Amino acid sequence: DFGKKGFEDTCNVLKENGIDYFGVGENENSIDKYRSLTVDGKKVAVYLVAETLFNEPKADYPGANVYDEYLVCKEIEALKKEHDYVLVLYHGGMEFYWYNTDRIRKRFHRMADSGADFVVAQHTHNIGLKEDYNGACLLYGQGNFLFGNNVTEYNKTGLLLEFTFEDGMKIKEHLVRHEGGKAYLDPNPDWSEFEKRNQEYREGNEFRKEYSAYCEHIMLNYIRSFRGINFVDRMVKKFCSDKTYKKFIYRHYTRKHLLRMYSILKCDEHNEIMTTALYDMIQNTKKG
Fold it and tell me: Which residues pair with 178 in a beta bridge?
């Protein structure tokens, strides 16, 4: 989030404290993608990959191992041939949301089909769903280990995962709670809500309802961004209820406008053109 300087500072602090790191590189040709470990007499690969956010490396700029489905699946397949187990840490997923999206589910399934024995999302800030698929364990959100003082119902817990490989891969989950800037293990964790969500996901109906409701909840932020916040919008938001403000924003968009935005976001060609043009505009715009 803090550019090249933030990347360098983080790497330096890790080095100074003898903490290994990978999944990143100083440029697009130096990404360190995985580590090979020997655990319980088994050879285990830990592979790191991230969704594309603002983290794409360039020829002279650091970044992460960003998700390219063809390359990632090929690399996982190659690692599986040389290791007993492949664990994938995937930085991505829907933030502050109990469930996962169809896109994430398809990606996790494809990585499992390529040989991953375990895949976990690291970006959601809350504990997601758990799925057994094709012999692999998929966890769509590990939650937070520590998240400062900004604690909500979504991000107040996380999972520490304990792996053993002596007699096949086994995973023991430990529930972490945090408050007041401190993290502690819950000695008597209640898994009932976690299991309930997993059951809803398997059945499908409630999961779909929850996902649609979540998307509708955050849609206003996207619509406002497309519109561009102006003085009138700020005044309306200041003096009106949230419901009235939402109606005020939405009435500026016809079905034709919405279809055009949908096309731009959905179509790879239009999406690439728009993001390229926006990036160039940002570079040519004064900060402030």
Answer: 183
